[in-house]
Amino acid sequence: MTIFSKTTLMTSGALLCATIGMATSAGAEELRGWNIHVEDYPVSIAMESFAAEVADKTGGELTAKTFHNGVLGDQPDAIEQVRLGVIDFGEFSLGPMGQAIPETNVVSLPFIFKSIPDMYALMDGAAGEAIGEGMKAKGIVPLGWYDAGARSFYNSVQPINTPADVAGLKIRVMSNDLFVQMVESMDGNATPMAFGEVYQSIKTGVVDGAENNPPSYESTNHYEVAKYYSLTEHLIIPECLCMSLKTWEKLTPEQQDIVMTAGRNSANLQRELWAEREAASMEVITAGGTEVNAIDDKQPFQDAMAPVYESFLADNPDLTDLVNLIRNAE
């Protein structure tokens, strides 16, 4: 059952109906979009809003149909299909884009964003422009930056308030060298494993904990076996509503303006819906007995990441200016 209000769902349903109605207009060009999420997820509702606005503002000349639940393929394949113009648009995490677009790797650096509002300001400004240029060079046009929340540590042993509290803990991480280095830099034991194995692994003591955003921590019931949730917010990896450059270049300047505006509007809607989703998840885990602690001073964590940054910039010296732009932002 969705956690969104009936009003939100009715609105999204109306937007979807409007879009479908436009798609039947004579002579309309229908754009195909990729989305991995279910239909009532914040991303999905925002993408339907984007489609409805494009159809409305172009008078039905352009329509867009989003294929939810990953039915057009997995994320790495879909990113490549968008680059090639086979799929017209999609909503992607910037994390998996790094193999093709080096600039997007920067947002996977731990603690590079100080907070969610900090991420919004930077991605809507100079950092987003710089990353966007890198994306365009590889065939993808960003239309709006979506919020995927902040990932924080949770475990079955103790609250984490300082890097020293991570020492000795066995923490499941995503299969990425940056995330392994992040935990090891605090003397923890990083354990990459499939996400579906985490619940049982914590329950049986194979690992002590993991890290993720509140909706994932709550919806997977990980809070049942890992009762300490520490708001380190160490990874804030934005997502992108993107269009194929090949599709973009087929649009008239007026259509491009409409599509870009609709993308930005959809991002604002998605951020609002995501905030609602996070708040509801926090209520569930608190009611379930989770001990949640905020981190008053993140500087010690940021300082502990020095080896991670040194290694990353040694391998990617051309990204130094972009990393400093984000890290030094006030």
TrEMBL record:
Give the residues annotated as coiled coil. none
| One BP term from GO | transmembrane transport
Cellular-component GO terms for this entry: outer membrane-bounded periplasmic space
What subcellular locations does the record give?
Periplasm
Kindly indicate whether the keyword Iron-sulfur belongs to this entry: no
Q: Does the keyword Signal apply?
A: yes
The main location class comes to periplasm
Identify the NCBIfam families for this entry. dctP, TRAP_S1
Q: One GO molecular-function annotation for this sequence?
A: carbohydrate binding
Its recorded name reads Tripartite ATP-independent transporter solute receptor, DctP family
Q: Which organism is it from?
A: Loktanella salsilacus
Determine the domain of life of the protein's source: Bacteria
Annotated signal peptide: 1-28
Membrane-spanning intervals of the chain: none
